[in-house]
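Section 3.1: Structural characterization of target chains.
Under the original work plan, the team committed to producing a structural model for every single-chain target entering the pipeline before any wet-lab resources were allocated. The record below documents one such target. The sequence was received from the expression subgroup and is listed exactly as submitted; it comprises 317 residues.
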Amino acid sequence: MQLFSSIRTILVVISSALGLILVALSDSLLVAVLGVICTAFSSGLGETSFISFTVYFKDKSVLSGWSSGTGGAGFFGSLTYAGLMMAGLTPRTTLFLLLVVPLTMAISFWLILENPLNTSIDPEESAPVADAAAPSTSNTPKTISRHSLRYKINAIPRSLPYILPLTLVYYFEYVINQGLFELCLLQNAFIDPKTQYRWFQVFYQIGVFISRSSISVIQIDKLWTLAVIQGINLIYFGLEAIYKFTPSVIIVLIIILWEGMVAGLTYVNTFHNIQKEVRPEDRETVTGITSVSDGLGITSSGFSAIPLHDAICKLSF
């Protein structure tokens, strides 16, 4: 298990660095897209791997710290890029400077962090689990390993109450972010349109950071309400992209901040509810399965955002 986690972390670090390098050096769309794929692979694999480790720590603040850290990464990352660009650096130089991030990640994992698999794991929780669905021909119940493919497949139905709301929230928000943001730029604002888009991203990440750090203050059991709220946000941005009825860019920024907060609340409360509601021996598996939900929502949103963006651009009012 420890060797497997180290291999995955190596892949996360290498693909993150490779993605930054490819985008920085890209002289064609294909190379730039490959760089984006590498960084997306690093992000997805890292999230699935590291969040599963949180179930091994007895201190529940670990989940809050993880969630706050991921929210802060988006905020400080977007703010750093916007700030360095405003300071006059080129995108290529900025991306090369950001190579310090995967280096810091490697140092943190191997030299700073205590490995929970060495100290915090509960032996009772890592024991094989009885397969209640399998017929037994003896007095000894059959068991399946928690790390087997069969066990993970059997855990999917128990994960659906967490997967579906999280997937929907991320689907709605990334249709907004990928397909509608650039259509909501105000022409006669105190921030020029080109700069507005960067600050849209910054305010979105601020909202995510605030809400992902809020689990000790706000706890939400009904995750479906957050999916409905994000759906309402999608309707607003869709109408704004078409009719341009919002009078001030400040109002748009506030609503973007709110959109990010809904996303962060859904994320942190989803995994908090798993730790609260799922039996200990299933938590790692359900957490790992559920962690792909945001990626599923983001990926599927791309196939909707592009045609939606093009359709709105063809409208004339």
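The longest strand covers residues 129-130.
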